[in-house]
Amino acid sequence: MRWTVGRTQTLYQDQWVHLQTADVEVPGGRRLDHRLIRTANGAYALVVDNERVLLLWRHRFICDTWGWEVPGGAIEDGEQPSTAAARELVEETGWRPAGSLERLADFYPMGGLVSARHHVFVGRGAVHVGAPVDDFESARVAWVPLTDVRRIIDDGEIIDGTTLVALLALLERAG
């Protein structure tokens, strides 16, 4: 069943978010005034080195919660997702991948509401290049042992859906 989208109208737009309303017809003829959020696609980099993964410990004011997150952010116009993931890794952590990044997962974290597609990459090894450029992104950058990942998930220290998908995909791949 595919929904039919009629007219869309902008409710609000700035450099980060574009909020729209859409006239949608669902199967059976019923019409809905649906909201949608358009944002940039995202790219994220998991780097594994010596059985550790590089994560950010940060506070999210929207849900007033602390948690571990994978470095990442918006893909800039014309930028390839893997390039964006590597750039975001350096900006947020001060580490760059030692080699190429490999695709781990692509998904829409809130496909019923938000247009953004998240691209998650994994790399082996990293080189420290200095302090994070975006030092406001996190309270700390840390190498977390892979053996602790299941515990931090179970303890609720992962609050971000993209990070959860990335870490579970990494654990599944590791076997």
Describe how the helices and strands are arranged.
Elements: E1 4-13, E2 18-25, E3 31-38, E4 42-49, E5 52-60, E6 65-69, E7 72-74, H1 81-93, E8 95-97, E9 102-107, E10 118-124, E11 126-128, E12 140-145, H2 146-154, H3 161-174
Parallel strand pairs: 4-10
Antiparallel strand pairs: 1-2, 2-3, 4-5, 4-7, 5-6, 5-12, 8-11, 9-10
Question: Quick summary of this structure?
Answer:
It is built from 3 helices and 12 strands. It has helices at 81-93, 146-154, 161-174; strands spanning 4-13, 18-25, 31-38, 42-49, 52-60, 65-69, 72-74, 95-97, 102-107, 118-124, 126-128, 140-145.
Q: Explain this structure to me?
A:
The structure is a single chain. The protein is α+β, with helices and mostly antiparallel strands and 175 residues long. The chain has helices at residues 81-93, 146-154, 161-174; strands spanning 4-13, 18-25, 31-38, 42-49, 52-60, 65-69, 72-74, 95-97, 102-107, 118-124, 126-128, 140-145. The strands form three sheets. Strands 4, 5, 6, 7, 9, 10 and 12 form a seven-stranded mixed β-sheet that branches. The N and C termini lie far apart (36 Å). The model has no long low-confidence stretch (mean pLDDT 95).
